[in-house]
Amino acid sequence: MDGDTLFTIGALARRTGLTVKTIRFYSDTGIVPPTDRSPAGYRLYDIGALARLDLVRTLRDLGLDLAVIRQVLDREVSVPEVAAAHADALEVQIRTLRLRRAVLRAVAKRDSTPEEMDLMHKLAKFSDDERRRLITDFIDDTFGGFDANADFVDMIRSAMPELPDDPEPHQVDAWVELAELTQDPDFRAAVRRMAEYQAAERAQGDVTGLHHDLTETVRDSVGRALEAGIAPASAEAAPIIDALTARYAHTFSRADDADLRHWLLTRLEIAGDPRAERYWHLLAVINGWPAPPSLAPVFTWFTEALRAHGGRPHTPRQSRVQ
Predict the structure, then answer these.
(1) Is the Cβ–Cβ distance between 152 and 130 less than 8 Å?
(2) Which of 89, 44, 35 shows the shortest CA–CA distance to 62?
(3) CB 256: neighbour CB atoms within 10 A?
């Protein structure tokens, strides 16, 4: 057909697959105006109108609203500009749908109540900034105002939950649990006691930072004792405790005596809240980090052994461990 061919609304509907009612609406709103009218007053459309209508249908299928479509047709914005903006909007919608899917799967797994499901949905919709703000508020409330171990505070402030765009249900579950944990008044009080203890130690002259090497020494020594089935209160545990207290004495420049053991026991009890380890485990799950092995059995054994062997070292020493 040549460019002089004109179509009625009915013919246009048959060629495009759109309804007459839809084409009339587009015509009335000026999106696809008629090219001419028949002697009887019926609307007629040319090839250009047919092409315009095809474009309208395509843009509508892509989810664009009529206001944006009118801007495209009137060349106020280009198709690439609209496509880029719409793709960005779809990314947000896709992320939202993925979060909803993860929440629903987590709810199904947990057999959650309606109240729990509502909480999970609200927390899952938090933005990255909102998640960071919740954790930052927790840290400010527990460590704020105390001259605590600066290296530890820096470490906890740098470890923020970063829920991925397409989280797994267990990551949503972990984020909800972490958010609930940080709002638990009892846990906040326990962490605040830890901050107060660290500040008191610093006031007494402790300028040491984190003690990863010391932790590894405890893990290795006590780990071997656990594997060997050595009971904390047994005689076989005594030399293990002697070696570990000597290492602590050297690290903190203290005398290796009964007072050190009492001090160390207090230190372990304050830092031994299992919820603190759970905090780091949940962060690892949320962020997709390798899950750290639990140190709870190690430090439980160490604490029980210290209580059982809380006096002076069982074997004489010439000097502290170097």
Answers:
(1) no
(2) 89
(3) 20
